Amino acid sequence: MSFLSSKAVRVLRVTSSRSSSSSPFRTTTIRHGTSKSFHIDTPDNTVDAKFDFTEENYKRVEMILAKYPSNYKQSGIIPLLDLAQRQSGGWLPVAAMQKVAQICGVAHARVYEVASFYTMFNRTKVGTYLLQLCGTTPCMICGAQEIKNVIRQELNIQHDGETTTPDGMFTLLEVECLGACANAPMLQANDDYYECLNVETTKQLLKAMKEGKPPAMGKWGSLPMNGQVSCEGPLGKTTLLENPTPPKVDKNRFKDGKVDPASVKQHMAY
Q1: Percent of the chain having pLDDT more than 70?
Q2: How many CB atoms lie within 10 A of CB 94?
């Protein structure tokens, strides 16, 4: 099926081997997941819409492309899509994908296939806060379903599946492992990880977000909501008590935002 097909459901007719007097065909409806692999036009997301990077983001585009040889611009598709998604408010309209294709010098389909493959890219609008709740085994065992229930109750969400609240503030989506199993249950809100959740801390977190004051991340880039530091146990830090000596690198190596691919090993202190 073409990426730009307007059909949301495909119907496959499979020849039946049954010898009964019923119809010789069986109709099977194939339903896609929440992230569809094709595009459906909406008033604010059509192939004829326009998108362009801001002047500030064009400087970032130049910095991204400078990391790759000039004949491998397509290597910048993923970071450029991420930049476009952030500029668009957390989602990727078709026009933004086409702009990335133009900059990288590739066919539109090359960008469509990347955007439709990776779940980090949202090709439909999401809320101000995209809540991705982990439902994989460690989180499930530690109470993810209870956390899901309290989120749905607090946000008045009545059904499963990707759901955006009427005010456009929250989108709730259950996802697979987010790699914070030691601090289960957890959720990712936009870029931030909130871990070690329980019913009360989840309510506090949602209240803070509604007020536009989400809790800041901790020292190590996430925030366990039970007061612990990162994934330290109740005894605190018991290993790696001394700070390792880092390799010597030139602190100004990225000052101009450009990296020569031929000397990347030197820049990475190999």
Answers
A1: 81
A2: 23
Closest CA to 40 of 63, 6, 16: 6
Sign of CA dihedral 138, 142, 145, 150: negative
d(CA 227, CA 232): 10
For residues 44 and 96, what is the distance between their CA atoms, to the nearest angstrom? Answer: 12
Spatial CB neighbours of 141, under 8 Å, sequence gap ≥ 6: 184
Give Cα 138 to chain centroid, integer Å: 21
Distance, in Å, from the CA atom of 85 to the CA atom of 112, rounded to the nearest integer, reads 14
Beta carbons of 159 and 34 less than 8 angstroms apart? no
Distance CA 161, CA 33 (A): 9
C-alpha span between 223 and 61 (Å, rounded): 31
Residue 81, H or E segment: helix 77-87
Task: Report, in angstroms and rounded to the nearest whole number, the Rg of the chain calculated over CA atoms.
Answer: 23
pLDDT digits (tens, 9 = 90+) for 204-252: 999 999 999 999 999 888 999 998 888 888 788 888 888 888 878 777 7
Q: Judge contact between 91 and 122, C-beta under 8 A.
A: yes
pTM for this entry:
0.73
H/E element holding 79?
Answer: helix 77-87
CA distance 101 to 159: 37
Say how far apart CA 134 and CA 175 lie, in whole Å.
Answer: 5
